[in-house]
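So, can you check this one?
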Amino acid sequence: MGTQLFCASSTRILCRTALFLATAAIGAHAQSVPKTTTGYRISGTVINAASGEPVRRATLAVLSEEADGHIVESVETDNDGRFSLDGLPAAKFPLTASKRGFLTAFYDQHEGYNTAIVTGADQDTSGLVFRLTPGAALRGVVTGDGGDPVEGAKVMLFLKPHWHNPWDRIRNAEETTTDDTGAYEFDGLAAGEYLIAVKAEPWFALHSSTIGNRQPETEANATLDVAYPVTYFDSTSDKDSASPISLSGGNREEANINLRAVQALRLTFEAPVNQNGVSVSPSIQQTIFDTTLNNISTGNPVTHNNTDEFELTGLAPGHYELTQGDPPRVTEIEVANSQQIAPNPNSPAAILSGLLRSADGSALPDNMKVFLTPLDETQNHELIQTKVNQGKFSFDAVPPRNWELWAYKPDFPSRIISLTIGNRTHPGNQIAVSDKAIQVSATVSFSEMRVEGFARNKNGKGQSGVMIVMVPKEMAAFLSLARRDQSDSDGSFSLRDVVPGQYTVVAIQDGWELDWGRPEVIGRYLSHGVAVTVTESSSKLLKLSEAVPVQSR
């Protein structure tokens, strides 16, 4: 099987990467097994993916397929970029390459998948071309009004989705802060399309209160009551107008950003009181794509006109998420001017509770968690998670929208395969939340079934580097049940953690740019795929009796 670097199911925070292990091992100069005079050879050339020139003194390593991914053999390229790894047993080896200034990668890597090299008597493993991509760099200067440098500004780099993965969102790639000259720099970046956002406070800003017994705001203070809105490249405060920056291997780009101070805004609240008669403090947070910039609490209330009030000061105009009340109610607000906020927002958060049960009736493992991710890819909220206690779980404040429900335990495959709400059961893990409490029963599969096979071209030969997709018959459960892999050098593949059900396996050449997550797109390939039925009584390994024909994209 091609080494899978990331899970093909959901958020990537759930997955360990073999690439990390390989990088750590090579960086630590792990001792390799001495060469022998017998065995098989993996050889080829490492070239610069951007220029096509050979890469000298790059480190090549073949790794074991064991969980620790230890180095079996390693070697450096010569002045012409050539390498040869000798004395290898007949086996399947992930092949990795690294060099300072380049991105460590696996052979023929796509997204979280790669092609492992299969050695043996009938395998040609010579003449490989390993394309190693140089890291890109992005630098710039953040200035304020008058062109003065802004020191200590938080600069956030976001990567736009490139791979056609239905779970991908704009994600926070890196963060840094500006130095005393306002300069920032990101290096070692992968090729892709990036967005930059800057959050900073004017050093001279002075925020004062206008409620209760506090000192009234003076004219001088009002002049200094300013804030910087979150600003995107190219110097706009509208995220929809942010200019993307395209980087390819080895690029060195510059992106300067100018911040403009605006009048700071304040929000005041009449304090809601909980059942114990205690004023409940609201909180507000600003989220950019999938990153929370700040979470501001209002602190203690101020009594004004015999009513407890809270106040938030120093806010920049922008989009915020407000939580207040007991039970908490969440509403999204666009803050364009100072205002009084009603004590009861119109968009209450719902309580979502339920029961988690296994598909085969077995006991749930300890320390499981369930979490929600937004289904709508235009929403980039952080996931909401909670613990499972004796099969029960509860989310206290879920904003109204469409979500996916996932179960998780480290190193323990788990997939929610159906949800029951009321008397209706539907396959998959999607759930619509409105303003009403929801009770759900979620069925989770702990299947460790592995489906193995071969992708072969029209000549009957194994095809390497092909995208393999296992498509469930129940398309409503496509996102949670589909599996992917990349074929190895002999055309073999392995699909892991397959849930019992009916599937079709397809092999698509050059399919990595395909929008495969859309059922109407992947559906075009099903008629030439191989049908597979997986049952609860199946063993942990199912080998396909017929090869999967390779189709063109």
About this structure: Helices lie at 18-27, 219-224, 478-481, 519-522. The CA atoms of residues 356 and 442 lie 5 Å apart.
